[in-house]
Structure formats: structure tokens, C-alpha cells
Design goal:
The protein has 464 residues and is of the alpha/beta class. It contains eleven helices and 22 strands. The strands form five sheets. Strands 12, 13, 14, 15, 16, 17, 18 and 19 form an eight-stranded mixed β-sheet that branches. Helix 3 packs parallel to helix 10 and helix 10 packs across helix 11. Belongs to the peptidase S8 family.
Length: 464
């Protein structure tokens, strides 16, 4: 075909979750607003919720004269200056929250009193709050992000005039560069002076799991900061076990009956011990757990069976110790405890005639071990080109508070009807926009620097 250089399969890729800037000793707002306002960050993601307070344009000047982008089916302002969509329903609005979270992490305006239902309360801000945002909606919930849409978005972003591209998405199975839409698009962007920042993936801690391996991309791993979310379990015998969760539900210290999921299987529904103790959907007997807190020994970290059977709360004993650093949000009072603590709670249930307990509302504790690479963060070496080290850098990606779409479940559960303006999530998707913001910061100070120079400056000045 005329003007066609190559044809590649249309693979589907996947999306890879305030205090973080302070922890990085990075002070947003150091650059003069007019310099920072000349920089446009393009986000290849799930869209944006433009009404979020993080995207107000108060005091911002009109977009830079170089800008040629468009806004499709939403009203833009001097903050969000571009919004395009590809495929599915005709809107760049964010129905799942991911794109809203990443764009506000990098370039959100200051919002006082931001919190997740009272947790992590403070001033939310992006790293470059005066930079402009351009949105390219290429990801569609469970449908993923197709190569065809991604390549079209790259072309549009380059033609529109973005300065930095932020891509919190990737493949679980890295493809050769000439078959990889992100690598191809990022190379094209690099040739036009645009640096692409991309997430390394969430397949850790096994080696050689990193994705987005092209040497012309800035590949970002995820690490912790000195804050963690704790939700404690208090038993009737006075023992206290620190669980990890973003738990906003208040039981007010009231104790409730405790049961082990393995003792309350829904046998009439064809479920046995294995399904029940993992608290899988439909596996628990609602007559036996209604109004009770259920201990789940869940390999998958699941709790759905408790919700479906009208349980009051869940204690998830997770047998994979290196994944205990992820604070999840649940649609009911719940927390995740270490396997040893889960065994102790089970022993209490087994040896007590009327076992009771409660789950305390979440708190923020200081994490003295920070920073460390998060357990889920994909590792090197580079399995496509071992001589090229990947990931390039790490940034905060654990328990990040940022803006959220009010139509999206904060926990990802279809049973969660809560509506929030800010959410706490984790992933290399959250670390990537931190690096994107730093790249935008450098670009604002040195507008003539090449993508390679910006990447080099970031990598050679990072702390070890």
C-alpha cells in the first residue's frame, strides 16, 4: 500500500493508582507560571473528568500560541486544552478514574482539603500545576487500549504540539519494538522533540517483568513514600493486629461476631472449602455470615463473597508476603493482614466460644523503611535487550492520592456505590505521571533540550 511502512497486529494493552511531591523534595510552583504554562503534557489514558477541582483554570493565561489541539465533546478551559477520544462512545470523559488520577498527579492545580473520605487530608497538587493538559482517550475499561487507537493518538498529540507524553499503560508481554505501538509511537515522538514517559508495569517482583523497554522511552518503576495506610483488627481478647487498607468505614469500636470463611461455605450453591476460604463470589452462606466479620484466607486477596452474602466486614489474610505493601480500598469495612496474624486470628476463632472483633477506621502511619521499590513493580533486566538497563528510574507509586471520576467505583468493585472526588490507588501508573511532571519541569526550564537530554538529566540527578 502506498505510504505504508509496516503493518503490526492490533494488540490490546492495559492500564498499569499529594504527599509524594513533598517526600521527593520537589516543590511545585517554583517555576514562573508563564514558563510552566508553556508546557503541554499529553496523557494517553482513559480520559478525564474535566469538572474536577484539580483542573480549574483560575488565573491561567490562554493556551500557548503553538497549540493546535482540539476538544471533542467536552468544554475545555485554559487548563485542559485538548481532549480527543478513539473508539467506543463519543466522549473523552473518564468512566473509570484512571486518567483523571494520572493527569492530576502530574499537572493538577492546588486543591485545599482534599482527602479520600477523610483519609490523607491535605492540599492536593500536581508536580507542575501550571502546565497544560491534553487528553487522548485510548483506554476503555475492560476493553483495554488498542494499538490502532494508540498510534492514532501519538500522531494527533505530535501534530497538536504536546511537549511531554505520559503513558500509564503497557503490555504484560513486551513485543519487539517494530511490533510495539508504544515503542513505535514514542520513537516518532522523540524524532519530533517529545519525550515519552511510560510505566514499567505491575508484574513484580519476579525478574525480567518490566515492559516499555525501548531505549528512547523513560521507563518508570514504582516505589514507596514515608506514609502508609493502616486499619487495625481488634479481637475480643484485646489482641490488636495492624492490617493495611484504605478503610473509610467507621464501626466506632463496636465488636461483632467473627467467623472463618471455611466454616460458612455455601454448599447448596456447589461451593466447597477451597472456594469458601478464598471468599470467592457466591461461595459463602448468607444465613451464617449476615452481620458478621469474616476471615478470608484468600490467595487472590478476594472479599467479593462476603459482600454478596451480606457480611458486615472482611479480614483478608493474604498468603503472599511480598504483596502486603498495597493498601486497597474495599466496599465494606475490611483490611488485609499478614499470614501469621491471620493464623493467630483463626486460632482465636477456633478456641473461643463466641469470638468477636472489630475493624478500626484507617489511619496514616509513618513508614520508616521508605523509599523502597513496591512489591508489584515490574523489575529488570530488559528481556528484549539485556544490555539496555530498564526500568530507568523509580518514583512514588504506592498509596497516591489524586483526583477521581465521580462515576467510577473507588474500589473497582461493582458493589461499591460511594462517590469520591479523590482516591488513593497504587501502581506504576501512579509513578509514571510523577516522572512526567519532572520531565515537564525540566522542559520548562530548558525548552530547547532534546528528549535524550531531559531523560539524562532526570536519571543522573535522581537519588540512590
Amino acid at each position: 500500500m502506498e505510504r505504508v511502512i509496516s503493518v503490526i497486529p492490533n494488540h490490546k494493552l492495559h492500564l498499569h493508582t499529594t504527599h509524594s511531591w513533598e517526600f521527593m523534595d520537589f516543590s511545585p510552583g517554583k517555576i514562573r507560571p508563564q514558563e510552566e504554562g508553556n508546557i503541554v503534557i499529553g496523557f494517553l489514558d482513559s480520559g478525564i473528568w474535566p469538572e474536577s477541582e484539580s483542573f480549574n483554570d483560575e488565573g491561567m493565561s490562554p493556551p500557548p500560541a503553538k497549540w493546535k489541539g482540539k476538544c471533542h465533546n467536552i468544554t475545555c478551559n485554559n487548563k485542559i486544552i485538548g481532549a480527543r477520544y478513539y473508539n467506543k462512545f463519543k466522549s473523552p470523559r473518564d468512566a473509570i478514574g484512571h486518567g483523571t488520577h494520572t493527569s492530576s498527579t502530574a499537572a493538577g492545580r492546588e486543591v485545599d482539603g482534599a482527602s479520600f473520605l477523610g483519609l490523607a487530608k491535605g492540599t492536593a497538587t500536581g508536580g507542575v500545576p501550571n502546565a497544560r493538559i491534553a487528553v487522548y482517550k485510548v483506554c476503555w475499561d475492560m476493553l483495554g487500549c488498542s494499538n490502532a487507537d494508540i498510534l492514532a493518538a501519538f500522531d494527533d498529540a505530535i501534530a497538536d504540539g504536546v511537549d511531554i507524553l505520559s503513558m500509564s499503560l503497557g503490555s504484560d508481554d513486551p513485543q519487539p519494538f517494530f511490533d510495539d505501538a508504544l515503542a513505535i509511537g514514542a520513537f516518532h515522538a522523540m524524532k519530533h522533540g517529545v519525550l515519552s514517559s511510560a510505566s514499567a508495569g505491575n508484574s513484580g517482583p519476579s525478574p525480567a517483568t518490566a515492559s516499555n523497554l525501548a531505549p528512547w522511552m523513560l521507563t518508570v518503576a514504582a516505589s514507596s513514600m514515608d506514609r502508609k495506610f493502616i486499619s487495625q483488627v481488634v479481637l475480643g481478647n484485646g489482641e490488636i493486629y495492624p492490617g493495611i487498607a484504605v478503610n473509610s468505614f467507621k464501626l466506632n469500636g463496636t465488636s461483632f461476631p467473627l467467623v472463618w470463611a471455611g466454616d460458612v461455605a455455601n454448599y447448596s450453591g456447589g461451593n466447597g472449602l477451597l472456594n469458601a476460604k478464598n471468599c470467592l463470589p457466591g461461595s459463602l452462606n448468607s444465613n451464617k455470615i449476615a452481620g458478621k466479620i469474616v476471615l478470608c484466607n484468600s490467595v487472590l486477596g478476594d472479599y467479593t463473597g462476603v459482600v454478596m452474602a451480606n457480611g458486615l466486614g472482611a479480614i483478608v489474610s493474604f498468603p503472599i508476603p511480598f504483596l502486603i505493601d498495597i493498601a486497597l480500598s474495599y466496599p465494606l469495612p475490611a483490611t488485609q493482614v499478614k499470614t501469621g496474624d491471620g493464623d493467630a486470628i483463626l486460632e482465636y476463632i477456633r478456641t473461643t466460644e463466641n469470638p468477636i472483633g472489630t475493624i478500626l477506621v484507617g489511619e496514616t502511619w509513618k513508614d520508616i523503611m521508605a523509599p523502597y521499590v513496591a512489591s508489584f513493580s515490574s523489575r529488570g533486566p530488559n528481556r528484549l535487550n539485556p544490555e539496555i538497563l530498564k526500568p530507568d528510574i523509580t518514583a512514588p507509586g504506592l498509596d497516591i492520592l489524586a483526583a477521581w471520576s465521580p462515576v467510577a467505583s473507588p474500589s473497582g468493585s461493582p458493589f461499591d456505590t460511594r462517590k469520591v472526588k479523590f482516591n488513593v490507588i497504587s501502581g506504576t501508573s501512579m509513578s509514571c505521571p510523577h516522572a512526567s511532571a519532572v520531565a515537564a519541569y525540566v522542559k520548562a526550564l530548558h525548552p530547547n533540550w532534546s528528549p535524550a537530554a531531559i531523560k539524562s538529566a532526570i536519571m543522573t540527578t535522581g537519588l540512590i
